Amino acid sequence: MKYAYYPGCSLTESAREFDISTRAVMERLGAELTEIPDWTCCGASAAEPVSELMNYVLPARNLAIVEQEMDGIDVLAPCAACYLNLYKVNREVVGDRHLHARLNEVLAASGLTYGGNVRVRHLIDVLKNDVGAKIVEQKVTDSLKGMKIAPYYGCQILRPYPVFDDPGKPVSMEPFITAMGGEVFRWSMSNRCCGASLMVAHPEVAVKSVAAILADAEGADAIVTVCPLCQMNLEAYQDKAVKAGGKAVPVLYLTQLMGLALGLDQKAMQLDKNLTLTPSVRQDIKTRAWAVPEPETDAETAGMNG
Amino acid sequence: MSEPVRKTWSPASEEYQSILGGLRESVGACMQCGTCTASCPNWHAMDVTPRAMWRMIQFGMLDEILESRTFWMCSSCYMCTLRCPRGLKLTSAMAALKRLARVDGSAAARRNSAFYEAFMDDVEAHGRVQETSMMQRYFLKRKSPTVPLAFLPLGMKMLSKGKVHLPSRGQGGVLKPLFAKAREMEGL
Ligand code: SF4
Ligand code: SF4
Fold it and tell me: Which structural domain range is residue A41 located in?
């Protein structure tokens, strides 16, 4: 299992713990990641409102490098926006002769060309279809038994292109949560938008979305994400969202939690970087606090004894 | 309609017309079922519903379109695109509306597109986005001291978590030739 790894900008900046945990976990699971040399930004969701062409050129430049220098192996992207941008070049440009020609005309300014032969995969797609939850289960050393984990998919990994899961009712993370020994927390907001970059220009609108998501996660021990923007919005604005009716819930990257289950320590998974993982939450994770049964009430105890 | 008047003074009228033309084509098949509006998580912040916006595009109601804040409230979540029974690329249409408003260049458009522009300027300069320098560019474009102040508490929190990194040269100007070429081809 060899992949051309595309970390994307966020994972080299405020989401380094996602990058580090992804690399470590994938290595444990037997995948070989080689970073795309000299990769550049995919444009996130900021390119399309500025330039239609650059919206395709930015991701395509990276695919062109993989095609020309890495034998066109599959690209692995952990970030939802990076994944969609890279993927949509294949869906929307390749096959459209006019647009494809325009794209290559721009790429030619850097001596590049993209033929359309590189497959783009999201981290979850690779976990589900190439690795499999069985392997994870076999390698678990520190079971998360009893931990109620709410899988959060967000929007762009399954919309508008549902490649590896049902965008209306996504379930692809569930076997991995179970494999780690955790319990899947059932909720209805797992594919609701977190507000994305609206949080910068119109925070009052995005905070409402985050509050609704966090309110629905009440009762979960943690939310797991696979997108740096989801993670940022759910964590960094949690105070405001709680004031707007949300519940405080720790938020981790799926790969961080998986790393812990696979025997890597909190330091290696950089749990200190998460804004919602206070020392007491980290202590809970360390001692597996959720595994301790709820204390019985006096009445119940009395009844059982009598 | 004031369309002919706009044509005479608009500095980029060709681009302006081509975006509107493309938009009309992209939502021409809309049958006004309202699924897009019902799917949108941000409809409560919009002054015109997505369904009504497509109608306004079909009718070419340029002034009313440009006055609306609807497309600035789109967070690119793709729910409408996924669910539209006509298979229309509605999220792309929202992005095209943002481009149209940028060409129009009103004060509201400048304010609302500041983040996207700051992001792209940073990509052009460094090849990769660097959050600190991108946010600096954003603050400069917003020209309001209260904007950076609102981000101060978060900035401090991120600093204490070691999530803030000083800008570096990144990949340098490796993308500059591509930006220049695209600009030439799009006439922007
Ligand atoms: S969902 Fe599609 S067809 Fe229905 S109103 Fe919206 S754009 Fe038109
Ligand atoms: S893509 Fe934009 S318009 Fe469509 S549902 Fe999402 S936020 Fe609403």
Answer: 2-123
- What's this model's pTM, rounded to 2 decimal places? 0.92
Residues 18-37 in A contacting B (C-alpha not used; CB under 8 Å):
none
**Same structural domain for residues A19 and A140?**
no
CB contact, 8 Å: B33 with chain A?
no
Write out chain A residues lying below 8 Å of B82, CB-based. 159-160, 162, 167
CATH number of the domain to which A229 belongs:
3.40.50.11810
ipTM computed for the complex: 0.91
Q: Is A85 within a domain?
A: yes
Same domain assignment for residues A180 and A226: yes
Q: Are A57 and B95 an interchain contact pair (Cβ–Cβ within 8 Å)?
A: no
Q: What is the 3-state secondary structure (H, E, C) of chain B?
A: CCHHHHHHHCCCHHHHHHHHHHHHHHHCCCCCCCHHHHHCCCHHHCCCCHHHHHHHHHCCCHHHHHHCCHHHHCCCCCHHHHHCCCCCCHHHHHHHHHHHHHHHCCHHHHHHHHHHHHHHHHHHHHCCCCHHHHHHHHHHHHCCCHHHHHHHHHHHHHHHCCCCCCCCCCCCCCCHHHHHHHHHHHCC
- Count how many domains chain A has: 2
Same domain? For A111 and A138 the reply is no
Answer yes or no: do B128 and A41 touch at CB < 8 A.
yes
User: Chain A interface, mutation test: which of B69, B119, B149, most A Cβ atoms within 10 Å?
Assistant: B119
Co-location of A70 and A113 in the same domain: yes
Evaluate whether residue A293 is within a structural domain.
Answer: no
A299 assigned to some structural domain: no
pLDDT tens per residue across all 306 residues of chain A? 999 999 999 999 889 999 999 999 999 999 999 999 999 999 999 999 999 999 999 999 999 999 999 999 999 999 999 999 999 999 999 999 999 999 999 999 999 999 999 999 999 999 999 999 999 999 999 999 999 999 999 999 999 999 999 999 999 999 999 999 999 999 999 999 999 889 988 999 999 999 999 999 999 999 999 999 999 999 999 999 999 999 999 999 999 999 999 999 999 999 999 999 999 999 999 999 988 776 666 555 454 443
A101 and A33 in a common domain: yes
User: Domain containing A77 — which CATH number?
Assistant: 1.20.1050.140
Asked whether B89 lines ligand 1 (CB < 6 A), one says no
Residue A304 within a domain: no
Query: Crossing angle, helix A52-69 and helix A97-107, to 10 degrees?
Result: 70
Between CA A146 and CA B106 the distance in angstroms is 55
Quick one: A244 and A262 in the same domain? yes
